[in-house]
Design brief:
Helix content: 25-40%
Largest sheet: 6 strands, parallel
CATH class of the largest domain: Alpha Beta
Distance between the termini: 14 Å
Structural class: alpha/beta
CATH topology of the largest domain: TIM Barrel
Bound molecules: zinc ion
CATH superfamily of the largest domain: Glycoside hydrolase/deacetylase
Length: 382
């Protein structure tokens, strides 16, 4: 992939409108043109000629798109981590940076190395909550990366409080490593979503309340991992409503309206939501002790990359995640997943959150692009 800086070519909204009108011509002469090719497949293009205020400023040429391999229908890694321990890899008896047999928990050495590696490979972080809403604001030529942490344990280990009221973290816990990387790479846009149970981060309750407020004030998100870490696939409707509703209620007491309405399903259960299991709908809407909630997305404990939110197979109720672990490049570990992503399967951004850009051949049957979120669609010939 050739990552380039934005070209100096800035087309105004008015010029974009004229491009929309002349898109057929541009497609026919795409090899020679320096202008972006714009499809006429969406509702918005029909009206853009007269409503220039809905047009989007285009800052690249079709040649730039080809060289960078821009493709916003390709896939995105959502990493699933659990505990991060202040340890060297040499201090564990398991493969690579795994702290347990199955690799759910990671050493701080390995976690920091993961973050540096993703950065060097051209990945940049974004919020999960924005991803499910189709709001992808990642620089031109880069790929979105989403981090999630389940269970809260060892993610934020508190040593105390600084004089200015900021938290003092134990070295090597997840947030300490994230903050270190954030300071070193401002353009990485470091962020993560922490999915909690009733034990929150397992510090003292009053400390966790303050920590959670600090996290949302500092670019991190808090989500729902059920109150008691229950296997929801085995629960009846009342129990699911209690598990989901009471956790949202607890978060709403701490950070009213500032948590994300997303559930990481404990043990990835249930994996599907069939019509003959209506109790599972309580994951997505319900009322517990007078507190009403809705959930817009849920996450599996899956093995591989997630679909772009713009494509047909994206299922907002079944987001797939990559387990952050080592297994010598086998069994869907980090190395195997990123090898596949980097082999032509990764989402590469055009740098503009208001457009969906991809090679026309990727939607040749017309049924792969599905959810446009009202954004402008732009295609180019590979
Ligand atoms: Zn869990």
């Amino acid at each position: 992939m050739n990552i380039r800086k934005l070209t100096a070519l800035i087309l105004t909204a008015a010029v974009t409108a004229s491009l929309l009108a002349g898109c057929k011509k541009a497609e026919e002469t795409s090899e020679a043109t320096t202008e972006p090719v714009v499809t006429d497949t969406t509702e918005t293009t029909e009206t853009s000629e007269t409503t220039t205020e809905t047009s989007v400023e285009i800052t690249y040429t079709a040649d730039d798109l080809r060289k960078a391999g821009v493709n916003e229908l390709n896939s995105v890694p959502i990493l699933m981590y659990h505990r991060v321990y202040n340890m060297k890899n040499s201090e564990t008896k398991y493969t690579g940076g795994n702290v347990d047999k199955d690799g759910y928990n990671r050493t701080s050495e390995a976690f920091e190395k993961d973050l540096r590696s993703y950065y060097e490979q051209g990945y940049r972080m974004m919020r999960l909550d924005d991803y499910v809403d189709g709001k992808i604001d990642v620089a031109f030529g880069y790929t979105p990366l989403i981090l999630t942490f389940d269970d809260g344990i060892n993610d934020v280990v508190l040593e105390g409080w600084n004089d200015d009221g900021t938290p003092k973290f134990e070295e090597g816990c997840a947030i300490a490593v994230l903050e270190k990387i954030k300071a070193e790479f401002p353009d990485y846009n470091v962020t993560a979503t922490f999915f909690l149970n009733c034990g929150l981060f397992h510090n003292k309750k009053e400390d966790d309340v303050k920590v959670i407020k600090w996290l949302v004030d500092n670019g991190y998100d808090i989500g729902n991992h059920t109150y008691d870490h229950k296997t929801l696939g085995q629960c009846d409707a009342a129990e699911i409503e209690k598990q989901i509703g009471s956790m949202y209620k607890l978060l709403d007491e701490i950070i009213p309206g500032r948590y994300v309405n997303i559930v990481a399903l404990p043990y990835g259960s249930p994996e599907t939501f069939p019509a003959d299991k209506p109790q599972y709908e309580k994951i997505f809407a319900g009322t517990y002790e007078g507190f009403s909630y809705t959930t817009k997305s849920s996450l599996l404990c899956s093995w591989t990359r997630c679909y772009s939110p713009f494509v047909r197979d994206f299922d907002v109720r079944r987001l797939r995640r990559i387990r952050g672990y080592d297994n010598n490049g086998k069994d869907w570990d980090i190395e195997m997943n990123f090898k596949q992503l980097n082999d032509g399967r990764r989402y590469i951004s055009d740098g503009n959150p208001n457009t969906i850009v991809f090679p026309s051949s990727d939607n040749s049957k017309g049924d792969w692009l599905k959810n446009t979120f009202g954004l402008q669609v732009i295609t180019y010939d590979k």
